[in-house]
Amino acid sequence: MSSNPDKVWTVLSMLEWATDFFEEKGVDNPRLSIEWLLAHILDIRRLDLYLKFDRPLSPDELDRLRPLVKRRAAHEPLQYITGTTDFLNCTIQVSKEVLIPRPETEQLVEMVLNRYDSAEELSVLDIGTGSGCIPVAIKKNRPNWICAGLDISDDALHVAQSNAELNDVDVSFFKGDLNRLESKGKTQEQEWDIIISNPPYITNEEKVELDPQVLNYEPELALFHDKPLEVYQHICKFAASQQAVLYLECNDKIAEQIKDVALQFFGKAELKKDYDQNNRFVVAE
Ligand code: GLN
After folding, report:
1. Model pTM score
2. To test ligand 1's pocket by mutation, which of 90, 129, 133 has the most ligand atoms within 8 angstroms of CB?
3. 201, exposed or middle or buried, with CB in 10 Å at 0-12, 13-18, 19+?
């Protein structure tokens, strides 16, 4: 990218050069990666790059692009580099303190939105809220509901709060430990109609199977837990004490066991599949 200082770069020559460069570095989706970064720098939509192939890149644009290309070549997720991602109809800011929202989690939120409309005024608590994507998206689509998120990480709560502001919704976030939800439930008067959670559910043994892009960049606290079943048990117990309907995102390898845990506290628990046909969710009531 810098070998010849007099070379004039265009959108097209950059797309071609960086695609090859990313390919050499073994980066996933090389072409998409440079399209995303270039669109970010030029502040245009990705598809509009195709209308501007001959547009020259200024020295200033190249200076801003260079460090981003370097980060991507080191396999950093695109969402952390550009700082945002889409989640349903929301823009969600992400930083290394929070997990990048996944399509499965969109599906989890859609299950709630498909089942209850705005006619009901419901309250929803998201346990382990991370970026806050879940309660922010629910509030955006159900403005008359009460939506809240709980997390143990101050850094995550900070990101979650700014996501509520960015999306212009009123969501309360508070600090809490999912291992001690009982006391939180007691000190708090609020009874929740719906509890939703995508807790850390990857065991340490499963670490070796993980994509390095996830392992090296996303927060351990959000991903891993030694005993995920215990996490689910705490959440189930708390949700049952609130007589809430519970929506859980699960590790597919232990989804059956999570359902059994839910059945210790609820009369009914149902497994649901994600788009890849893995057992990904448990709904209990
Ligand atoms: N609730 C957030 C999400 O679904 C964070 C989940 C987590 O950190 N385990 O993206």
Report:
1. 0.92
2. 129
3. buried
